[in-house]
Amino acid sequence: MKSNFLRPFLPLLAAVVLMAVSGCKPPERAAIPDTFQPLNLIMFTNASAFDDIDAPWLLPKGLQVFDGVPFQVDGVIQLSGSARPGGQGHVNAPDSITGIPVNSGFEELHLLTAVDGSTDEDAEVTRITLVYSDGSKATLSLKYGQQVRNWTGRWHSSERALRDTNASVAWVGQNSDPAAVDRFPRLFHVMLKNPNPHKKVLTLSVEKVVDNVGPFFAGITIGPTGADRLINTVNMPASPFPDLRRRTGQLAAIKGVVRTVDGKPIAGARVEAVSARKFNTRIGQSDEDLANEVATTTESDGQFSLPPLPDNRLYSLVISKDGMQSADYYGADPKSEPIEVRLQ
User: Strands 339-343 and 255-260, how do they pair?
Assistant: First the structure.
């Protein structure tokens, strides 16, 4: 009876004995964190697309929650490549970054990312390599139009939606440079599955694939499947981006705030709307000059509200303050979110 009882377990017992004799150990299963764990990327950050538009302040910094997932944002990892006309292609940026520490098992990899430039639909633009503690590797991909697109999107015309249901726009901003061509800056939240969740990931690397498209990362977080989403510290705007609402010329006021480069409000700055142009046009295609009475000055907190203007135009503004360098804003929409301008 005893021998019959043990017979089903003999192969397992033999394996254990063999490992004991040979000194081998069974593969160790890495623990999976029970909540989100943002990775520290600060030592890998460099000059990015945000610096190209003189707006590194535009992206919220520190521990921030986008789309329910926490990311540690201490700057941006920018890889080389850019299809922007006249752009430098991030000539000092690397083609890849290796050795980003992870040291954990995980089920989901969350990326706060975009690419600078455009390419063919479904073209692979970013490659992420996971390096496991047993020496094996796994490769994950981001494809244009599936998980990511150009970091500046069309503002007043339609664009194809991302086709991966695990990817979505997680942050939207406004800035003069993109507005000059009727576009807005954005970042995507992309979730990828780790094919070997119980293997410890020592490091990961990120690599650009297409020469004229520069991927970048504002945050990377690991976590388990089904983790509770957190309350956002960075919310999507109330007005839509892209904005396809019908416009009739109804009057609306352009609002915003003027600050110093380090974020202090500027009181008494003059904000003037100087010209107007149609949607889906570029700066230089203005079809209406405005009289200088379309102007205001900022309050003590730096806030301003211009006299109402027709809502079916983009407006170029000039912002000035004695003792400071004046600035242009190349396309404010009266029906959109308040803008922010920073003066040197």
Answer: parallel
